[in-house]
Every structure is written in C-alpha cells, then in structure tokens.
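To: structure subgroup
Subject: Chain for Friday's discussion

All,

I'm putting the inputs and outputs inline so they're searchable in the archive.
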Amino acid sequence: MSKKIHYYFLVLLSATIPFLSNARELPAPTGPYAVGTIMYHWIDSSRFNPSFSDKPAHYRELMAQVWYPSEKKENPVFSPYIPAFGVIDELKKQLSALGFNKSYIKEILSVQTHSVPGAGLSAAQQKFPLIIFMDT
C-alpha cells in the first residue's frame, strides 16, 4: 500500500469518530446563516513532492476547503462528509481487505454535512470574520 493510500486510510478512519457514539447525522448549524462550501485543489507544478507518491515526477498538491455564511435555501443539496475523491474506490478495496464491513464503509460515505457546495455568499454583511484551521 503506498504512502498516499495510508494517508487517506487514516483520514477515512478519523472521519468515523462520529459513528463510534452511534451518531448517524452531523449536528445542524445553529447560527443565522446557512453554510456554503467550496473545495480547491492546487498543484504547484514548479516543485516536486516525492513523499506521497510512487511516481518520481509528482508535483506538490494542496487541498483546501472553505466554509462561509450563505443564504438559506429550500431543499438544499448538502455536501458529503467525506468527498468522493478518486481514491475512495481504492480505499473501499483496502478497507474490505482489512476486514471492514462493506455496509459500514457505505454508511460512512453516505453521511452528509450541512454545507451547500458552491452556495452564494450571504449578502447580509459586507465583511465576515475569517478563521483559518490548519491540520498538519
């Protein structure tokens, strides 16, 4: 198993914490705004990153997700708790090989957040506070 698969495996396992307490739904936001979200995938093609790839010419990559106040909508389509990156299929195989129940994996991947991908920024204010969370 490559280092990259190990990393995503750990991310997936850490995402199962809510299920350890039999939580099947994430708590809804309690503030006056709905929550919008957008994901960015940046690639620095000027620098190589050999640490997470078996390929010798793998560029440095950074995934970022931004959450922001948005307008409330009727019948919103929420984003998944674990985004469906291409590596998810490989993770399913790896977890199944390690003895994880397939229905458990499916259940984890079916959890939705309360954020709406690509929702418009709330017009209620011109400025909002910025909070930066960085997990290393």
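Points worth raising on Friday:
The mean pLDDT is 77.
Residues 3-14 form the longest helix (12 residues).

D.
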